[in-house]
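Q: Is it fine to ask for two folds in a single conversation?
A: Yes, each is treated on its own. Send the first.
Q: Here.
A: Result:
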Amino acid sequence: ASLSAANYQQPATSDGLVVMEAEHYALREAAYDGYQWETVTPSGAVGEGAMQVPVGAGVAYPVSYAEDSARMDFDIEFTQTGTHYVWVRGLAANGISDSLHVGLDGVAVSSGTAGVYFTPYGSWGWSSRIGSGARATVNV
């Protein structure tokens, strides 16, 4: 596992918005096959770049994705309980590299098991939608 120095705290504001750059993860772990998230600098990225798992590493709908997939963890200190909506800015090249899963405290959450999807392909965009069209959420 590799580490990056990042801790986030939810502000005590009414919206409780926590904004993070993906490259400022707390922990990064490789998948069972050795692939892991890596920093890249594609056109249109903001901050220091973006994170991606190399092309060819994606497995469409793996049964044990939570245990077998490349993983990044983010340390967030929540100050508000309840449902929190997950938004991710991403760029997908195709249907193999168009999604990621969401979890809380090292466990996949039900809304994150279907993955957050990015379309249209080839364009940066914000998404909070999973395969069913519902919103990706975590309940704190």
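Q: Second one now.
A: Result:
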Amino acid sequence: MFANAIGIQLSDASLQYKDSQTPTLAGVNMTIPVGQWTVLLGRSGCGKTTILRYLAGLLDDQVDWHGKLITTDGAALHDRIAYMAQQDLLLPWLNVLDNVCLSSRFSHTNSNPADEKQRALNLLEHVGLADYGYAKPAQLSGGMRQRVALARTLMQDKPLVLMDEPFSALDAVTRHKLQTLSAELLKDKTVVLITHDPQEAVRLAHQLYVLQGTPAQAQHLNVPDSPPPRLLDGECATLQQAILDQLEKDYE
């Protein structure tokens, strides 16, 4: 479907921290289709970020993880992942352009620095920051900094993009605009997004899972047939309420 794209099947996954008597996750089954957005919701501490860290190969030896992960091409996920976090993580001593190009410093490819710079400038234009390439992060608003982080994620050009609440710290209008921009610029990628916002989940998800229970399992919810990013109509409002109903069960 897409060049170098990855789909993932996660089967019977369980996770337990070694200093805990209770597993955080158990019996998690999840399909992450090629070229689509898979969105995860759930209460704090249910294991959402841990799933992302597992996919990224970032779990430490304090976590026992069991389960089966199969990729659509049979290859490992190593070095095929871009990770966008809630914090923009920009280096304050570098300008915007150098922050976007940061990943290329650690790349094993022998790319031309001039070509890399031009590509970064093109990405900054895509995210509406063409005039800010030589500004420092401290000169930018929160929304602008997250757009730089998005450009940096795109600069890595990985087939799998993991996003951990990347828009949660933004005001409603900026968040809405960045959701739309991300859906447009990542339309050929396989994306896994964590959010606490049911409206954001409904706007962006092709596949939607609510992590629920103790230990948590993944409950799949059907989304509207319309393509993301969706206009928030009555069908979307009904789904938002269904998500809230599912989430509230963990607080009863």
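Q: Anything structural to flag on that second result?
A: Two points. The mean pLDDT is 90. The beta strands are 8-17, 25-32, 37-42, 63-71, 81-84, 160-164, 190-194, 207-212, 217-221.
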